[in-house]
Amino acid sequence: MSELSRQVHAVLFPVLETLEIDGNICRFLDRGGRSLLFGETGEEYVSGQMSEQRLSRETVEAWHSAIEKAKARAGKLILAADADIAAVHRLQGVSAKLPSRDAAQRMSEFELEEVCFEMACGVTNAGINLALSPTADVLTGSNQWLEGRTLADDPETASRMVRSYIRGARRAGLKTTLKHFPGHPVLRGHPAKDEATVPASLDDLRAQWGAFRTGIEEGVSAVMMGPARFEAFKPAVAGSLSAELIALLRRELQFEGLVMTCDLDHKATIGNKSVGNVAVEALAAGADLLLLSPNAVPHIDEVATAIVNAVQGGKLDPLRLDAAANAVHQLADFGLCK
């Protein structure tokens, strides 16, 4: 296995719908993979509830067994899961419950921090070290993707809740991820199945960045880019593929941590391209970690080959790949990115 290939595998972020570390995932880890996302089914994602079958099967011992198997092959890893207040909490069966959106809004900052701390203790005890939460989007209009799944309807309340979440998680040793930059205040279509767009100007987007700014000030470890296309740029470009938006995140919001994409095969992101080509575009734009949905995971080899070919063919700067892989290694090994 060449060093180039190992770097490529380090920037891939496959989603597992179960705790099974199967042959495909074992090969991915053997080839240099450093990150796994323990996801949920589509039905669980939409409902925000884990199935009864999953809750009965996925005990703390089952989590430990799966994670130890992965770590035995690859050492220290980024091991991630959703843990959202207003949406899906992947480890709801083995950690303390999170409050509803309304209940969380009524809590003081300290009260919410304590609740998030208790949740995060259970999550880290299971072996997860990165939450793909909290959500920093604030909605100002129609959004069928995130309706009812955000923390609050105003930046001030959302900022307060993001602060409590990150502080509570950090006390428990759980790293956190802000999503989905640069926010989706209004959304036309659903990004997973439509070429969805955000018809907001850059100034309109900036006006809703309070929770993102707060999270970055609190030391969040990662930021997930949004999947929709932003009409503030011509032509409209998906957040996960936008060099301009990632540059704004880095320079204007002074974020120094790990930048990850949303699912690369969301229709709004992939369009009519191959997942391999989109992966190359995301890296070139400045993303460090590329999220591959369960539907894209069988194409890991295709994605890896596309990135290798892009580097060898001069279409992707090897220094950009090196920087992305180093960001992943730093978070996996030390829990920080610079």
Give a quick precis of the structure.
Keywords: Glycosidase, Hydrolase. The chain is 45% helix and 11% strand.
Overview of the structural elements:
By secondary structure, the chain is an alpha/beta fold. The chain has one domain (3-334): Alpha-Beta Barrel (TIM Barrel), CATH 3.20.20.300. It contains 15 helices and eleven strands. The protein has helices spanning 3-10, 23-30, 42-47, 52-57, 60-74, 101-106, 109-126, 155-171, 202-206, 210-217, 243-251, 267-270, 275-285, 300-312, 318-334; strands spanning 12-16, 35-38, 78-81, 130-131, 175-181, 197-198, 222-225, 229-230, 237-238, 258-260, 290-292. An eight-stranded parallel beta sheet has the order 10-7-5-4-3-2-1-11. A three-stranded mixed beta sheet has the order 6-8-9, with no helix packed on it. Helix 1 crosses helix 14, helix 7 crosses helix 8 (155-171) and helix 8 (155-171) runs parallel beside helix 10 (210-217). The longest helix is centred in the middle third of the chain and has 18 residues, at 109-126. It is globular and about 55 Å long. The mean pLDDT is 96.
Strand portion, in percent?
5-15%
CATH C-level = Alpha Beta
Rg over alpha carbons: 18 Å
Number of DSSP E strands: 11
Domain module count: 1
Main beta sheet, described?
A: 8 strands, parallel
The coarse silhouette is globular
Order of strands in the sheet with most strands: 10-7-5-4-3-2-1-11
Secondary-structure-based class equals alpha/beta
Please give the alpha-carbon distance between the first and last residues: 27 Å
Query: Can you count the helices?
Result: 15
Helix content: 40-55%
CATH superfamily: Glycoside hydrolase, family 3, N-terminal domain
Mean pLDDT: 96
What name is given to the CATH topology?
A: TIM Barrel
List unreliable stretches of 5+ residues. Answer: none
Order of helices and strands: HEHEHHHEHHEHEEHHEEEHEHHEHH
Catalytic activity: Hydrolysis of terminal non-reducing N-acetyl-D-hexosamine residues in N-acetyl-beta-D-hexosaminides
Enzyme class: hydrolase
Domain Glycoside hydrolase family 3 N-terminal: 59-330
Organism: Paraburkholderia dipogonis
